[in-house]
Structures are given as C-alpha cells and as structure tokens.
Amino acid sequence: MSKVNSQPLLFDDLGPRRVVADFSGGDLSSDGGCLLVRQIDRGLGVSRHLSACFHDGRDARYVEHELQSLVAQRVHGMVLGYPDLNDHNHLRLDPLLAVCADKLDPLGQNRLLPQDKGKALASPSTLNRLELGNNRSTRCHKISHDQDKIDQTLLLMGTRCVPKHAREIVVDLDAMGHLLHGTQEGRFFNAYYDDYCYLPLYIFVGNVPMLARLRTSDKDGADGAVEALKQVIGALRKRCPKARIIVRGDSGFCRPELMDWCEDEDVYYCLGLARNPRLEQALCPAMVGARMQHCLTGAASVRVFTEFQYKTLETWRQERRVIGKAEITHEGENPRFVVTNLSAQGFCKADAKAERFAPCNLYEQLYCARGQMENVLKQQVLDLHADRMSTHHMASNQLRLSLSALAYLIMERLRTLTLQGTELATATAGTIRLRLFKVAAMVQVSVRRVYVRLASSYPMQSLFRQCLNRLKSCAWEAG
Length: 479
Description:
Helix content is 37%, strand content 20%. It has 17 helices and 19 strands.
C-alpha cells in the first residue's frame, strides 16, 4: 500500500473524540446476503442449467473463468442490483461475490497476469463477449448460446415451482413496452407507448416466470401467444396432469385464434374484451340500473354486472359468454367486458364453488386478480432492470431479458421458501435486496475455510438465520 493511501482521513471531531478513518479494513463486501443467493441458486441449479445452454469454444489451457462462473457472476449481479456490465469493473474486486461464483481463489491472488492480481472475477469485456457471442464471428467471440435451450431452462425452473398435485393453475399473459434509446436491431415506433421500443411477451403462473420472449413492437400484442401457450401448457400438464388450466389476459390477447385453440385443447380462458357499439348496446339495461343507483345512493362508484351471449359479425366461430360491468362514477360511465368459456355452473353440476364464476365474482376476483402479474412486471423493470436493452443485437437483448427473468425467479423462490410468515413475506424484490442482501461483511480466506464476518449491528440477524435454515431444509428436485 502506498504512503498516500495509508494516511489517515481526518473528519470533524465528535465532542472530545477525534474522528479518523483509513483504508485498512481488509477484504470487505457490502453484499453479505449474497450467500443466501448462492445457497438458493445451488439448490435450484439455475446457473448450472443455464451454463449448459452455452457453447464454449475457448482453449481450456488459457481459461481462467469457467462458463458456469461467468453465468453465476452475471445473474447474481442482477439479483444484487447491478444490471450493467460496467458495474463489474468494481464488483470483480468483491471477494464475497467471487465466493458466490464458486471461484476457488476468491481473493484473486493466483491470477496469471500481474494487472489481474486481486481481481477474482471476470471483467466487463469478458462478460460482454458472453452476451455478444451469437452476433460476432471473431477470434475473440468463442462463446455462443442456444436461446431455445435457455427458454426451456426457464420453463423447467418455473414448472418445478408448481405443486405436482395442483388442481387448478392460472396462466397469466401480458406484454410490456421496453423503451429503446439507440438504434438497436428490431427498433420500431409503437403508437401506444408513443416511442421506439421492444414489446416482449411474458407468461407467469402466480409470481413464477414461465416465459420471457423478446419481440419487435411492430407486431400485435398477442403475436406468438398461441405458440408460447402450447409450450407452457404442455409443460404444466406433464407436471400436473390433473390440473385445470385457466388462461388470463387483457383485451390485447382476446384474439379468435387464441380462444379457438383453448377451446380445442380443453383449456379455460378469461380475457378482457375491447368495447364496441354492439357490446355497449347489450350492456345498456345494466347501465341504466347503475345510473339510477348512483343517483339514489350518491355513492362514489356503483357497479352492476350482467352476462349475455355474444358473437362478432365475422371473426368468431361461435357465441361466447361475455360478462359486462356497468360502472358509474363521478367522472362518468366506465363500461368493461370480459369473455370466457367458464360456465356459471362451475366445472360440473356438483361444483360447490360455482358461485365464484358468477358475473360479479368472475370479474372482480378472477379477472382483476391479473393485476398481480402487472405488479410482478414492475418489479422486473424497476428492481431487476429487465428493460435494460442497451446492446445493438436483438439476440443479445433477448439473452439479457432471459437472465433478468431467471434472476427474478431466484428472488421469488427465496421469498416463497424462506420468508413466509415474516415481515418480508410480500415484499418486492427491491425491498428484499435492501433489507436482506445489503449487509456489511468482512471476508477472511485461509487454507481451510472462507470466514465471513457479518456486521454485528445488522438488525435482521434472526431473519437471516431463519432464511438459511429453511434453505438447508428444502428438498430440492434432482435434475
């Protein structure tokens, strides 16, 4: 250490005490909770399965960073709140993140080049070649990935989260505009978002991601949804052969081909339906009743629900059940419609819970519950930066989207498996990261062990211990 760096830093006094600082604290990390990330990743096998989707053409004699280590470094960085490759300029110095990436030399003392001493992890340029391998054919780009295998890996990881004996599974579809700030491949202007963007398709079961597929924004919101549902529902039926499956989505997915496929494949659906003059005319009696109640009661909002059979003039092959919501607020009328093949009598005549498919319950409890998926997508963007589409090539941006989805899966599993019954049981990914992962830690490496000294003043020590104990007791599925 140079003389300049070893000089103490003098701050304003604290009463009679001097306040002095220096840089002699040793090997420290601000992300002590990443040990929990490593534990759940090893149990789920995310990094292991994901690395198998890459082809490594490097000469093993000169490789210092194994493929699985690179993948773990990138995914764990996203979980910990470091979405950009530039972040790894500093992260590669973190000994604890090196432990999470299974680096046997977490302090980087055995690196080959002198300038790499003390930097156990890969540099941003190495990680960049990992992401760009499919788009470059130079001697420096020898790592490539199979996107189909990565999609299958996400689907495999997601379906394993669904209980095998589930009797009903709700599959949510949604599309989200990820704005672009450059001239990326596949860049188109989207009138709805009033900007240039991508329009990825997401499929979730509860809070668990099943599919994250990047699309250009010049396509319909439901483009490719049927093909995606075939893959997801096929995997779910293998996992839960006795489960009923309900597909749920907004009016952007109310397309004849999707409803026809669901009906042909014995899949239920509950989809928003865009209003038109014929639908509004059918809802007119209910709207009149809602308007009278609003005038008589003076309530802020009055809702009246009705149902009727409806068929378009040309595109639908048959009549379908439509639920209409006639709502009156102080701001005026707010009609809404949902189309479904769920019967008001339930799944059979003896269904004791058939009332949940009555018009009011079906709209407010089943259809409106899809708002939870929108909350999950907000976490994807705000906490895990799934919209960071800053590479030029669409294949690389698709890879980043998949890595973000897998990072969210790790966070979701941690929340579900370890935080139930605690104050963080329903916390967002960002809150979990702040409360559970951002822990000051001192790392001491010896021949026999890596000793991590977490901050004694950490206020959530009991919760941290509980999470680790619950992870150790989990019975992980083999594969």
